[in-house]
Amino acid sequence: MNPAQFDFETIRQTTARAMTRRALFGQAASGLGGLALASLLAGDSKVNAADASSQTRGIAGLPHHVPKAKNVIYLFQNGGPSHVDLFDYKPELARNRGIQIPDSVVGQARFSTMTSGQTARPCLPEISKFARHGQSGATVSDFMPHTAKITDELCFVKSMTTTQVNHAPAITFFLTGSEMPGRPSMGSWLTYGLGSESAELPGFVVMTSRDKEASCGQIFYDFYWSAGFLPSRYQGVKFRGGGDPVLYLSNPAGISREARRAMLNDLDRLNAMTLDRVHDPEISTRISQFEMAYRMQASVPELTDFSDEPENVLAEYGPDVRRAGSFAYNCLMARRLVERGTRFVQLLHAGWDQHRNLNTQLKVQCTDTDAPSAALVRDLKRRGLLDETLVIWGGEFGRTPFLQGKIEEMKSWGRDHHPYAFTIWMAGGGVKPGISYGSSDDFGFRAVTDPVGVHDLQATILHLLGIDHTRLTYRFQGRDFRLTDVHGNVVKGLLA
Amino acid sequence: MFRIFRRPIIALAVFGMIFVASAQAADPGEISFSRDVLPILSDRCFACHGPDKANRKADLRLDDQKAAFVSGVIEPGKPGESELIARIESPEHDEVMPPPKFGKPLTSRQIDTLKAWVAGGAKWGRHWAWDVPIRPNVPTAAGAKVRNPIDAFVVARLKAEGLTPRPEATKAELIRRVSLDLTGLPPDAAEVRRFLSDDAPEAYERLVDRLLASPRYGERMAWDWLDAARYADTNGYQGDGERTMWPWRDWVVGAFNEDMPFDRFTVNQIAGDLMPEASRERILATAFNRNHMINGEGGRIAEENRVEYVFDQTETVGTMWLGLTLTCARCHDHKYDPVSRRDYYRLFAFFDTTPVNGAGGSGQTAPVLDMATPAEVEKQKKTAAAFETLLKVVVAKEAKLREAGMVVKDGKYDTKLPVIIESILRKGPNDRAAQNYEELKKYYGSAEPEYLNQLDELRKLKSARDEAASKITRVMVMGEAPQPRETFMLTRGAYDKREDKVSAGLPASFVPGKSESTDAGRRMSRRDLAEWLVSPENPLTARVTVNRLWQTFFGAGLVKTTEDFGLQGQLPSHPELLDWLAVEFREPAANSGARPWSVKHIVRTIVTSATYRQSSTAPEELWARDPENRLLARGPRHRLPSWMLRDQALAVAGMLTPTMGGPSVKPYQPPGIWEEATFGNKAYVQDHGEALYRRSLYVFWRRIVGPTVFFDTPNRQNCSVKTVITNTPLHALVTLNDTTYVEAARVLAQNLSKLPETDDEKRLAEAFRRVVVREPSGNEIEALRSALKRQRGIFAADREAAEKLSKAGEWPGVPGLDVAEHAAWTQVCLMLLNLDEALTKP
Q1: Over pLDDT 90: what percentage of chain A?
Q2: Residue B713 within a domain
Q3: Do B343 and B233 sit in the same domain of this protein?
Q4: Does residue B684 form part of some domain?
Q5: What is the mean pLDDT of residues A269-276?
Q6: Which residues in chain A are contacts of B35 at CB distance < 8 A?
Q7: Residue B167 has what DSSP assignment?
Q8: Is B396 a member of any domain?
Q9: Nearest to B831 among A250, A266, A359 (CB)
Q10: Closest-CA residue of chain B to A217
Q11: Which chain A residue lies closest to B237 (C-alpha atoms)?
């Protein structure tokens, strides 16, 4: 082996396994046979919990500094929400309605092939009304009445920029730091670095939803929550909207929980005999992983059982909250997950891609997401969880301040993808509440004050969780990789 | 040549910080440039003082002998006068190298190594993998532990470590291990009896020869090749349309089975179409390069897609044959390995020659090898025409319905129609999801009977069309465009940022003087590339290939970074063994009787070695000392790949369908997986009958959501050559709860009920043998008995549950079997299939 190369991961796993094995042998040596071992494992013993998975531990030396946030809930809005319709109020667009957006503003900007051939770029003002809200006076569209009520909790970033103009690469960029699939996603980095606080639930959970009309064909690629080259247990566990929330969670028809328990006791006993003979520490890991699976079979249904939620809380999330697979349901699940120690919850909601249906679809999209997002922030706050939970709401880019289509054909108005300026918001977890950070030009076209790039946002998120983004690295193919590649600066102005 | 490492690799725990103390040369005479010095220079210095000229600092490069010495920072023999040493030892923050902000300071051990190296004369060398392997002398080591040269190298190393090999595994363990490794299946009972009763000294070798001759061998070996070649049955990305590349998959199986020499295997796949006798079979082989994903997403620029495809082809070949990670060189000169951006785009140019233009998203984009029958084509045309005709009628009707709903309110467009109906109509009937049809039916109800009838008919015609189209087998293959395309270097890999024009050529530093792309004006072609890959002067192909084979059987390569043989890759654990295998692969010893490039010869050599045949049972201290078995002081023991677990379950239950090849099949999968991932556009229609029990190799692979019964498998989206073995609760849920396993347990249980022995103990022992091949111990039988007793109690009290369990899967049941008894045995069998030992290669 090469003196310059440290394979931390392997060594850490090995040590963890070796320690467990000693623990197991300790039991055997003190006269407990396989059966006692099995019942020991069946219980909630500390030995077992510590080993339940290496999922629960992070890597040595982390956090690098005192964290502000423990958990992240990322409400990812696939498709590209229209910043000029929703948050970034630009009166100049109304003054120039239907008039070509100045070339001096557009410059050499590149667009998707949907409008790259279009020479007419008439300004299109917001399709509904803006008003100022809260102490902060943030501008929010009347399409989002609930978000409007919590603006003093929110930190708007109005100067986001990205380098990507197509959905999949742009989303991949936001979630993994690279537009090419294959890098670890943010949730994987965080659970790898910090571990998870839950021994019974995955540290990184993903849930997806989409608009009811299925107007949008954007699919959810699994590389949005991939562990990339990190060990695969850091991959996001996707909770499904129908059937078992976790694949294969339910026992087969005819096998009760008791029958499974009885079988696992005997399985543990037989595996312990193999361990005694072979001494492969992986066997003890397997015993505990089977036990963890058994516990998950109980803890996940408990997680998805909303019967302990007060009616007023459920009402706040909106009527869809009981429909598994809806954005509202996923928002409530997100809160229940972070309460139970899940580190990173990634919601993906598709449908924000209004190329030709701005007038009909944007409102629908807002209705689906507005109340649940606001309810989540309020709910976290009431429970004292908002301080330690960073909530992020935003898409992979914004939408063009100019029209895609023809101004006289109102029924097919739309906006194209727009990477040069757009808005996201964050709440809790150590960000400044009640502010708007950065700004775009008078047309909402380019970020002009304090632009925030995708790597900057990622560096900031990591910072809030106590991580120096330049120091959380993993060696793959001979190179030390990190979420922010070789870029990114912590945006100090966002920190509380 | 490399010496054996002197010191053991020891894991030390110090205040929770753990590090590996590796071999450290004690005096200057022992310093090896490529083993000791180059890794330090590469990891800590090359980022700024390496091959990447754009980012080179102070005009100093340490990757090149001449440049390094000309710079004057190294005074051979005089560390005290060498600037290099002064800088790495400097206490000054702004002087010390590497700079603190680089974040990778040198350890004192590394500084000592560099000092000792300079003191010893700063002898230069090359990265080991760039030199062509030469057959090393086999160490002399005698005794029963040495069956072939592999063992001589391993034992010599173990001796230096103060270790001895483990004794040979039991015969039962051996037959299970080698059967799984060579065929992906457990041995059948007859084979076990035959082997256990064969007392001849060469019984094991004879077994290996039988396994190598089995057609199951090709199926097993194909899996790893398919993973690396990112083979799948769909295109990936949005839409994820189907493709029919399975004839290529079958070609791979056949090639392994006939032991096609690896040089021919290589040339056929990379350039079969360019060979003088380009038979259909050779053209089929080139489908290898068309296995990449295809992006049919709207809004994508065709050329951007096309360039992505060529990147993928270039990098896949780079990883699979050269063990190089070329991706970095898309944007900048490689920071560590001698691959410049120019080299990258010259390799790229080899593949930049096909007529593919990146437009459309068809999984049958020309050039294709048409393997359709005239009847299939006729049917496809007919069904497509019928669909198109009715489609026109329906589109016109829907435009009217939509128009009828439109109103203008307050100067804004609005519609009377419910939003969902308007949205569905706007999208049009061409790609309509099933649930949308239902919405339309609900809304228009009795108002539009004719229209609703047409919709029903349209759906039928569409499935008839799709069905017929999917039966047409056209395999995407390689071919040259009539007009050669010009290739340019691209700034940061952006398709539209062209720089210098380049022509196809080999990486300059691997073929000094020979890399010129034109040979008397002739353009180099993929054929030149392929032939160079398997030429005697190529230092990498043979090493990289034998290393992957080693990984197949030992769980990790001799070079652990199977994907990276470059400077940042790990050094081989047994460098001489690696080289011996590589040379033996390329030019087998005369007395071996093997042909050059015979994969079976290398496989046979590996699995008949004493090293492979060792017991994997070892004292606790050995597991602690060498958890990863890098020293090979015990036999390989790893969890089986998930695809093999499925095959094993089918085999032990006697359900496996032996059929080879053909279109992929769709076995059990929990409902809604495809539908959820594709927004209802792709419905999973499970097969029935024997298709449910085909080998995993033939399971349909949808690229955006692979078969859920598999885990720890590459996603088949990009080239992947690394074995991944993790241990998570989610995996336990698969093998405990997936219908495949529950059904296999149920069928195994009913098979046991047919045994002439009625005694529980005998039946339990037989079940145990069928799953893990060996005899159970007394304690194990006792545990099995009590498990059976407990499960009998549970199901006797709950016959309803027993009824349900005894119906798992579609395999026929056995009439007259008591359900409670059957269920109890099913539980015991499911437990057996989930034993650590069942999940693990012994």
Answers
A1: 68
A2: no
A3: yes
A4: no
A5: 97
A6: 2
A7: P
A8: yes
A9: A266
A10: B679
A11: A221
Does a structural domain hold residue B311?
A: yes
| Complete domains list, chain A, with CATH | 8-60+256-296 (no CATH), 71-242+324-494 (3.40.720.10)
User: Which residue positions in chain B have pLDDT lower than 50?
Assistant: 1-29, 517-518
Q: Which two tokens stand for residue B600?
A: 């079976």
- The total of structural domains in chain B comes to 5
Compute the distance between CA of residue B531 and CA of residue B536 in angstroms, rounded to an integer.
10
CB–CB of B296/B241 below 8 Å? Answer: yes
Does B502 lie in the same domain as B546? no
* A359's tokens: 């007038």
Q: How far apart are CA A11 and CA B370, in angstroms?
A: 52
Q: Give the contacts of A347 (CB within 8 A, at least 6 positions apart).
A: A73, A74, A75, A76, A206, A207, A208, A209, A327, A330, A331, A334
Same domain for B828 and B771: yes
Q: Tell whether A82 lies on the interface with B, counting CB pairs under 8 A.
A: no
Is B119 in the same domain as B25?
A: yes
Q: Where are the alpha helices (DSSP H) in B18-161?
A: 38-44, 46-49, 65-70, 83-89, 108-119, 149-160
A108: pLDDT strictly greater than 50: yes
The answer for A 301-360 residues in CB contact with B (under 8 A) is 356-357, 359-360
State whether A254 and B801 contact (CB < 8 Å): yes
Q: Which domain holds residue B606?
A: 149-169+538-625
- Which has the closest alpha carbon to A11: B355, B17, B616? B17
Burial of B740 (0-12, 13-18, 19+ CB in 10 A): buried
- Rounded-to-integer distance, Cα B758 and Cα A108, Å: 83
Residues A217 and B240: beta-carbon distance below 8 Å: no
- Searching chain B, which residue's CA lies closest to the CA of residue A127? B412
Inter-chain touch B794–A262, beta carbons under 8 Å: yes
Contact A280 B623 (CB under 8 A): yes
Chain B's closest residue to A356, CA to CA, is B426
Question: Smallest Cβ distance to A359: which of B19, B413, B717?
Answer: B413
Of A3, A270, A410, the CB nearest to B22: A3
Q: Is B772 on the interface with A (CB under 8 A)?
A: no
Residues within 8 A of A (CB atoms), B 401-420 only: 406, 408, 411-415, 419-420
Q: Which among B336, B637, B806 has CB closest to A280?
A: B637
Contact map slice: A 273-302 vs B, CB within 8 A: 273-275, 277-283, 285-287, 289-290, 292-293, 296-297
> Which of A27-31, A66-70, A176-180, B399-403 has the highest mean predicted lDDT (pLDDT)?
A66-70
Task: Determine whether A387 is exposed, middle or buried from the number of CB atoms within 10 Å of its CB (0-12, 13-18, 19+).
Answer: middle
- What's the rounded Cα separation, in Å, for the pair B751 and B759? 14
From A219, A244, A260, residue closest to B238, measured CB to CB = A219
How many residues comprise chain B?
842
Q: Which residues contact B759 (CB under 8 A, 6 or more apart)?
A: none
Last residue of a domain, one of B90, B109, B125: B125
Does the model's ipTM exceed the 0.90 cut? no
Could you tell me if B582 and B243 are in contact, meaning their C-beta atoms sit under 8 angstroms apart? Answer: no
Q: For A53-62, write each residue's pLDDT tens digit.
A: 434 578 888 9
Q: Which two tokens stand for residue A328?
A: 């509202």
B834 to A267: CB separation less than 8 angstroms, yes or no:
yes
| pLDDT above 80: residue A195 | yes
Bridge partners, B18 (sequence order): B13
Q: CB count, 10 Å around CB of B143?
A: 10
Chain B residues whose CB is inside 8 A of the A255 CB are 742, 801, 805, 827
CB spacing of A278 vs B22 below 8 angstroms: no
Q: Nearest to residue A85, comparing CAs of A127, A40, A30? A: A127
Chain B residues touching A114 at Cβ < 8 A: 298-299
